Fold this sequence. Notes:
By secondary structure, this protein is mainly alpha-helical. The protein has one domain (2-304). Helix content is 80%, strand content 0%. The chain has helices spanning 2-15, 20-33, 39-57, 63-94, 99-123, 128-155, 160-170, 174-184, 186-200, 203-214, 224-238, 249-270, 274-280, 282-304.
Amino acid sequence: MTKNLFFIGIILAASGLIGPPFALALGLVFGLMAIHPFHRESKHLSKFLLQAAVVCMGFGMNLKEVVHAGKSGFFYTAISITVALSLGILLGKILTVGKTQSLLISMGTAICGGSAIAAMGPVLEADEEEMAVSLGTVFVLNSVALLLFPFIGLALHLSQTQFGLWSALAIHDTSSVVGAGAKYGPTALAVGTTVKLARALWIVPLAIGTAMLRKSKAKVQLPWFILYFCVAAVLASYVPRWIPTSVPLFSGLNRLGRAGLTVVLFLIGTGISRETLRQVGVRPMIQGVALWIVVASASLWAIHAGLIRL
Length: 310
């Protein structure tokens, strides 16, 4: 019965009948109410699907917009990452959260959620419990952000560009940024995705720098899917002029990416169980929530005041 419900959820998410926020909510209900029949497989599948979906969505992007948003976003993300990391480490010390766990939560908030934690975990020699708690904290906050951010954006009358920029700077995971942007509008989606990927690029120098400081021999995982996203944007910008308009190749790939993202959000939701919430504990969750609120509020204020713009 549980397996059937799981597969029905995937089919609904892939069908286009439900949107990303509803897919996430459906996954959360499943994760909290049922025992996941494919917990390990679901994690691997969601990681692959997210990267493939982002690449496919690159076929719906304009190269000039990608380059412009990426150049501006790289500067803004550098500032936000520095502030978030510094504040996160300070909060971890105040709350006496374990050093490794505190760093993972801080880096997950500052850079790109679960991807940053997965990349930094081996470098910091984190054990399974530290990884689980950090990922659990970030995933819970991701779920809240995906459902909450569009309402805040509409209430404050943010433009699509402003909302996309805010989502990219304040939401942890790429999947939730893309989901929130897709709900808000096409320009919000394009800006949010591009700036978020620029933010994700910081995994590489931070992971390499941390490995050198700690003299770790762990292999740094490079986010190659970002390069493929850029290649997709190049193809979408220049190749269509040689393809008959009757062949909707790139628009079809873009729709496939959106469907894949909706499935990813359902899978992420199913991974948040009662056990996950128990594992997180109070102090790491307080650190994650406090850091996220400060980052989200400060970036929203700066964007709304016109201090940050594309």
